[in-house]
């Protein structure tokens, strides 16, 4: 396998045991000022342009990282916060995958730095600290960028939003980030972004009754799994396939299975292809949250939620498990994951309108958060008609970076119309892929995910 021993040409041994005493700049406070070893030179993956140089290391908290700098570096650093989150231990393979996926940044002249984060699981503030620590490593051992753009992808967009509120000129002694680029972002805050996964759990159990099975100990589904219980993603998929035959062509499913799938897709408003993924996250990620982050209690609830779209909504609403969010768990999870809308720098975001993982309606909630927090004028949102959750297109991202830097350096705040008009100019170099819809506005989150009672 590519990542077994020689991860894209760079040695795993070169990443292990890298601890050191190189101090960060005295003017900084927080993670960026921590003492970190110098990274080691490594072979860049083939996706990067000729002449690029790469550095690899493991920070003092145990996070692996990669830094790439093109030969014609324009002085701008893209500091990357990755999606997920993964539940496994940190791995150098994670950052190699990220660098290869976002190689367009290096091809466009930007330096790139990404971290694996030092722990798996749904821990947003800790991931923000890891990202800020990497900025200090770059600053100490590579160079002082003229601009630093914090890029958050998927779950990492929430990490970036949190980092921009945690680390400011007041808290670290300098303005650490000049702007934020948020792509395919899970931006509703954890207390709102994952409600539909609880809805999926209770609806699935109502329809299938095998997660847990009647012969197994029963538990509140908002726990994900009870602490100490073990289940893999393959186990969850196996149960879903037992009930729904999602691993078979539609023609080979029974009428009952087809009806259950239709109920799920209509009520939860996700495509059939996303059922297993969201069911898995609503199991294993929820367990990580409740068992490791919120003291064994759940921040999720569905009291008051009214489900619609089935063949018999009254019976469904009377029959699904009803669960109440624990107030202390809710507050703790909100502290860790929910943005406050107090971001002091420009923020530019993009989202594929049909994204089945991070609903486009989350962007409507994020806009309202930014407005309430006093940062609404520093947010510009864009939307595309094509793409995937994991990646939209090369010209999409270079267009956004160009517009964001003009905003930072010339005060020219971009507009969705202007971004859409500029994108085709990048296609000759970066390939086809422009699909901005400048007139699109997402509906409120409550139009897709039912309102419910909350401890707040």
Annotation keywords:
456 residues, alpha/beta, Rossmann fold, 9-stranded mixed sheet, globular, disordered N terminus
What does this structure look like?
A nine-stranded mixed beta sheet has the order 3-4-5-7-6-8-9-10-11, sandwiched between helices. A two-stranded antiparallel ribbon has the order 1-2. It is α/β, with parallel strands linked by helices and 456 residues long. It is built from 16 helices and eleven strands. Helix 3 (124-141) packs across helix 4 and helix 7 crosses helix 10 (275-293).
Give a nutshell description of this structure.
The chain has 456 residues and is an alpha/beta fold. The protein has two domains: 6-190 and 340-446, Alpha/Beta hydrolase fold, catalytic domain (Rossmann fold); 192-334, no CATH class. Helices cover 38% and strands 12% of the residues.
How many structural domains are formed by the residues? 2
| Total number of strands | 11
Radius of gyration: 22 Å
Amino- and carboxy-terminal Cα gap: 48 Å
